[in-house]
Amino acid sequence: MGLAVELVSRPPGEVPLVRLRPDFAHELVHEQQEGITVHRVAEFNRIVLD
User: Fold this and answer.
1) The whole model's pTM is what?
2) Could you tell me the CA-to-CA distances from 13 to 4, 8, 17, 39 in Å, in that order?
3) CB 18 within 8 Å of CB 1
4) Nearest CA to 28 among 39, 38, 37, 20?
5) What pLDDT is stored for residue 22 in this prediction?
């Protein structure tokens, strides 16, 4: 998708964090910072499960 990300390593046994770069203008950046609605979760579910 061409999104700029930062990969943050964590202690052994923990999954690394993938953060979208805040200076990148994309809807997902805003959603990662501010959170998403239940309606948006349902949209993602439809995309993934269909």
Assistant:
1) 0.60
2) 25, 14, 13, 32
3) no
4) 20
5) 85
Q: How many domains does the chain have?
A: 1
d(CA 12, CA 48): 29
- Alpha-carbon distance of 23 to 16, in angstroms, equals 21
Using one digit for the tens of pLDDT, what is the confidence trace for 5-46?
Answer: 999 999 999 999 999 988 888 888 999 999 999 999 999 899
Provide the terminal-to-terminal Cα distance of the chain, rounded to the nearest Å: 20
Give the residue from 4, 6, 36 showing the smallest Cα distance to 19: 6
